[in-house]
User: Fold this.
Amino acid sequence: MGIIYSPQDIQNSLLEWFRLSGRHWIPWKLKKDGSIPQLGESISPYEIWIAEVMLQQTQLKVVIPYWEKWMKAFPSLTSLTEAELDNVLMIWQGLGYYSRATRIHQSSKILIEFVGKNRDQDPHSWPNGIDQWMSLPGIGRSTAGSIISSAFDLPTPILDGNVKRIFSRLLATKKKSIKDEKKLWEFSSLLISMIRPRDFNQALMDLGANICTPKKPSCSFCPLQKFCVAYKKYDPDDFPKKEMTKKKPLQEIGIGLVFNKNGELLIDQRLESSSMGGMWEFPGGKKNSYESVEKTIERELKEELGIVVQVREKLLSFEHAYTHKKLNFTVHICEWISGEPQPLASQKILWVSPDKLFDFPFPAANTKIIAELHKHLCIDNK
Ligand code: SF4
Assistant:
């Protein structure tokens, strides 16, 4: 890797910068009384674990209000294990990548066996080994490393997106390959401070968030400038190598809003094994190229629920972007003609009064439909 400076030089520069400019206010990194933990002092892993999973695909400023809401709803591991998945998904609603919430819920049942019901307030009851954390659903090496270093001040390296970017620039590593990923992990293990691992990992994350940003890094304020090959020899913006951004494919989706004679609306709960498993949604599905959207709705409702409907007026259509695809939703009010609805492609179905829809966890795209439906039915949400 051609290192011409010692890891300690980097540690010293980074830790001094962290002392002056780090984000020492992040709530889950503090003790219950709001003070900063001492060197080597353990703090509760529960709050850190939840925050780290939330942060996997989401920025800190977005995560904080969700984390606060979560901690009010499920203040301890024990309370989380006792919660229904529906309630967990409700708190997660709007944060996206819902499988993260489902996996947290699954992990809580595994963790409580290890920690013990009445001992979850004691950090020493929790696992502090990398393999133990990585055996939990949805926890990779970097998330595990971050939880352990933050909670127990142990030297477990991390390599999240921010840290990868910093290291790629420090080393001017351009290629993205498994071999390079392995080298970056080695670099992270080599650099981590054995004396202040918690602060060191946090300093890396703070540097990535505030100084070594994806575009136009603030190199003139960077404590690692003198060690940085990309800064000295190249344009740091060129590191790491950018992925070619592919155009997201667009898929047409037809959705049917079916009412019964009591004015209740039919919703179904996605299979646990599917993406967004456990979330509720309105019935419908993908349009085939040879059919109209009205035909799609009729076909999908027959296949999914075993009912025959007459597609009536259009309520709205809108586009919603996901990570790898865009969906164009067209939503129609439907008249229920025949057949008793059954969960043929879902785990549960329910008839729900339209004003109660927000009591259920829906993916973001469906919440747009609910808002429009409430306008249509003159339901005030204030
Ligand atoms: S000098 Fe610039 S590119 Fe290098 S680590 Fe610092 S901010 Fe990033």
Remarks:
- The chain has a mean pLDDT of 92.
- Residues 166, 169-170, 211-212, 217, 219, 222, 224-225, 228, 230-231, 236 surround iron/sulfur cluster (CB under 6 Å).
- Strands lie at 250-258, 265-269, 280-281, 284-286, 308-321, 326-338, 348-352.
- Residues 147 and 224 are 25 Å apart (CA to CA).
